[in-house]
Amino acid sequence: MSDLSSDFTFRVDATDGTARTGAITMPRGTIRTPAFMPVGTAATVKAMYPGQVRDLGADVVLGNTYHLMLRPGPERMARLGGLHRFMNWPHPILTDSGGFQVMSLSALRKIDEQGVTFRSHVDGSTHHMSPERSIEIQGLLGSDIQMQLDECVRLPADETAIAKAMHLSLRWAERCRIAFGKQPGKAMFGIVQGGDVPALRIESAKALVDLGLKGYAVGGLAVGEPQSVMLAMIETVEPHLPAGKPRYLMGVGTPDDILRSVERGIDMFDCVMPTRAGRHGLAYTRHGRINLRNARHGEDTRSLDEASSCPAARDYSRAYLHHLVRTDEILGMMLLTWNNLSYYQDLMAGIRAAIAAGRFLDFAAETREAWARAEAERAAA
Description:
Elements lengths: L8 E8 L2 E8 L2 E5 L1 E3 L12 H6 L5 E3 L1 H6 L3 H6 L3 H5 L5 E3 L3 H6 L4 E4 L2 E5 L6 E4 L1 H11 L3 E3 L11 H22 L6 E6 L5 H13 L4 E4 L8 H11 L9 E3 L5 H9 L4 E3 L2 H7 L2 E4 L2 E4 L19 H4 L3 H9 L3 H27 L3 H21 L1
Helix pairs in contact: 6-7, 7-8, 10-15, 11-14, 13-14, 14-15
């Protein structure tokens, strides 16, 4: 491991239109961008070994502050040497702030100026998370990139409610910045909010940039709005974010979401979609999405992708995967998760290479055409 006094830096190596490729460098390693971060909610990327995740090309994984706060607890995690040692992942880790749970657990929480009071979904116990406590927890976990506490509003929503949440998130961002202080080699990112209201998004972005943070996320998207709205909000925000800082689109998304967001200048992504889909019988491939639950795969001896470097995609028949899925065998979940994360990391590697070569739009069009062609063939079969 590098000297932990080293700084957190970001560089852009090449651009193609608004799309860009580069690297975030920090003591625990380099994150090649654009990057997809597998989600390790409870200190594990479900159905995967850490070494597998690394071998697929992941430079960073995401941990969930809310869930780790409840189990095993941040103070215990610190006593055990921190999240990296705990989960045997010596590479960069980004932790969210718990803010998404403010939205997703709306029946179990209360928000005020001081923070959020949660009722645990595990045992009903009550917990209070202020901006300062969120940063403290992330520090106890030992994460390399820490997110501000924010309030995320599910869309569609009333503009008054969106504005109220955005302004509260800005006040919390300032408190998080103060609580974070100076941590050599680490970073705190602010989160642009403002729902689907362009003026609020711009106001949020400008105010966060004034705080001089090391990176900026776009939050509160992919929460019920059409893809066109999500993309419009990225286009609204991007010109107001500094070119020399990484941009992270939180909770996104599908392969097509990623392609279209990279085109608009996004550097980092996370989403549970590839791992969750793998546990439910859905494979992401160069040939589009393949639902292994469908009876049509029962006698199909083809692999998911004979050209893939991933054994899960290359070395098992669709018939066998169909059998595992239909019988709820754990191996099916493991193989399809492995395949999906492999596909996502291969997609990101292809994106980076295409931007560096100045042919990103061609790469994106070719990728979509391959999905559409395979889908048409399956429909005609």
